[in-house]
Task: structure prediction
Amino acid sequence: MSSFEYVFSAIKGQQAGREFYISMCPLKIVPKLFLFQADELPPELRSQRVVNKSRIPEMSRYITTNRQNYIFSAITASIDRQVTFEKLVIEGKEQDDIGRLRIPLDARFILNDGQHRRAAIEEALKEQPDLGDETISVVFFIDKGLKHSQQMFADLNKHAIRPSRSTGILFDHRDPLSSLACEIVEKIPVFRNLTEMEKTSISNRSTKLFTLSAIYQGTLSLLRKPEKSKTITDAEMKVAFDFWSCVTENIRDWKLAAMKDISTNELRLDYVHAHALALHVIGRLGGALLSTPGRDYKEDLKRLNDIDWARKNSALWEGRAMHNGKISKSHTCVTLTTNYLKTFFNLPLSSEEKQIEDTFLRKA
Result:
């Protein structure tokens, strides 16, 4: 078999004193070239984690529904055989780092990073075979044994940090809810002046009061849309703009903060309405008001200032919006705080809300 080879055009590089190679691989041969390790192998004998099959359909759909602008980063693989790098000759001169990588046909390719991308490509090819002529970049290393491959996997993933939820929303132009949240921030003066667009938490010294992710979550609750919703109608956009404009007009402290007449840090220390929890539950309140016949939410929301939002009112907020004096965004606290607002505005509780409320009252 040694007389037969895989041949890739490649660029040679060096890291930590050892050579590696970067090449392009047609998508149609990715499933054939890079094979999965058997799931039944014990963890200590694996060089990769077990594939999470639930992730594959979504990743595959991402490719097939974004043919004009999908992007996958390089996959990384180790080769368990010696390879030959044949330098390219241009006008009689050898190029040190450009050439062809020759790999024995009986070599095994061990995926160090990219197994879910590889599985998603395989699924996408079943639906759209013409994807096969497109390419993905591959970084090849020479395999130095199981322990080395395991360490490569650990090193490649150790410093991977997911972007903050707010940054993901800010940069995701495919998601109509993300775009809507960004427009709400831009067009509503209180939000425009007080929203942190990248971080999902606000430091004590920050002059911001809201996060983009909190406005996104509040709008999601207001419109009662699934998070993966593909469309937002013009009518829904108008509802969202009108609702949040009305809310910001009727919470006096928010307006004072926007005019710099009160410290945002002071508000966070002293009031429940200065936290992401409030945007979430006010959005849920809005969804309930909008779905109740005969209610004029613009008139109703004028009563937002009548609520005692002060954290020192522990008889109201402890256990409902706070635990041991700290604001909590748990599902139970979101529901209990929503329950209080719905009761304040004379709205009925759902069966789940009533059950959580009854449990809370029994423990009180």
The radius of gyration is 28 Å. The longest helix spans residues 234-249.
